[in-house]
C-alpha cells in the first residue's frame, strides 16, 4: 500500500511539475510578446512627430557652369514651401519660390520676369523674353 501511495504521489508531482513547467514557458512567451509590443509602441514616432519630420526641408546645393563663362550657384530647399536661392556670376542673389511646371522644376519671382528652370543636371535663366544664362550644366558633368 505504501508503494502504491508513493507511486501516486510521484505521478501527481510529475504531472504538476510538467504543468508548472508548461505554464512557465507560456508565461515567458507572453512576457516577451508584451515587451516587444511595448518597445514598438514607445519607439514608433507619433503622427505629430511624423508630420514634423516630413516637413523638414532637404537642402541640396548645385553649381552650374553656363555658356559665356557664366555660372549659377543654386541652393534648393525642398519640402512644403520649396524654393531656390541663386547666386549668379554677375553678382546678383535671388530667392525664388517653386511654381507650377509641366516638366522639370521652375522657380520664378512674383511677376515671372525672372525664371530659373532646372531639369536633372541642366538649367537656364529666362529674364523677360531673353535667356540670359543658357546651356548650364552641373559642375563636373560632361554629358
Description:
The protein has helices at residues 2-43, 47-54; strands at residues 59-65, 71-77, 83-88, 93-99, 105-108, 114-119, 122-127, 130-138. With 143 residues, the protein is an alpha+beta fold. It has two domains: 2-44; 55-138, Beta Barrel (Lipocalin). An eight-stranded antiparallel beta barrel has the order 1-2-3-4-5-6-7-8. A hairpin with a 5-residue loop joins strand 4 (93-99) and strand 5 (105-108). The chain is rod-shaped and about 110 Å long.
CATH superfamily of the largest domain, by name, is C-type lysozyme inhibitor
- N-to-C SSE series? HHEEEEEEEE
Q: Supply the CATH class of the largest domain.
A: Mainly Beta
Instruction: Report the strand count.
Output: 8
Tally of helical segments = 2
Q: Which of globular, elongated, flat, extended, rod-shaped describes the shape? A: rod-shaped
Overall pLDDT: 82
Distance from first to last alpha carbon? 100 Å
Largest sheet, strands/sense/barrel: 8 strands, antiparallel, barrel
Q: Which topology of the largest domain does CATH recognise?
A: Lipocalin
Q: Strands of the largest sheet, in order across it?
A: 1-2-3-4-5-6-7-8
Q: How many domains, as an integer?
A: 2
Radius of gyration: 34 Å
